[in-house]
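Subject: sequence -> structure tokens, single chain

Hey, anyone have a minute? Need the predicted structure for the following. Not urgent.
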Amino acid sequence: MTNEASAQFSERGFLVLPGFLSTEQVAGLNKAVDDSLTSRPEDWWRLSDSFRQAPNVLPWTDAFDFAIEQRPILDLVEHWFGEDVSFEEFSILIRDPTENLSEAKGWHRDITRDYSRRAEIDAVSLIYLLTDVGEDDHCFSVIPGSHDGLLHLRPNEHKAGEEVDILGPAGTAVLFHARCLHCGKLKPKGRQRRSLHIYYSRANGPRTSEWTDIPERLSAKTDPLLPPRLYSKWNSTDVFDGTGKKPRDLPAGLTMAETLSEVQRRAREESARV
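Reply:
Had a minute. Here:
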């Protein structure tokens, strides 16, 4: 990863890398998504008519491991943090065609919705597009600089047109700081959009999310080409008190989808208060 790319990421808070994955790699990842949908439907949360998510597939397949371990990405994340990095979370997202365009997830920062704690957000997110995303398709959108120089911005306080819609062919990689304001935009003619979402943080800090189980096969790796503490949080119980921490006061018997729905409801209320 070049110094120019690192500088761009530092300044804007995100970096787009078209063609990062090969056609064969994208096909293999899409097959793994299809296999998960058919063989383990219980792992998928349907959050709306257009939004499906699977945050805990790693214990059942190693088909996604290579996507976490891309050395050019890890080099850039290490450069940003200046120390050992750790893997935090993995999720598959599917956005289906929909007529309910008001359902789109609003502008937000990851890890915590508490505006007063925005400077504590300390993670980098990697997105892989597994389908082509054109101007008429559902897309990821981000506010440049809102991780740093525009950190004062609250959700929906930016000027119209300041955001950047991330478009690109399948295989595009997008790296962005979780402090950046971002959202998912739904389009009336949007085709199904598939994407993988991977988070990294500092190995010596709390885990940013416990929704993804890190299987022991990953923690047991001794690959000298990987950061030495990449999977060091596989059994960590120290979790940042934010959206990635499962509430301890929920009623027993809730499904994972119901649990996530309640977490999101609380996050929206918290955002409204601050």
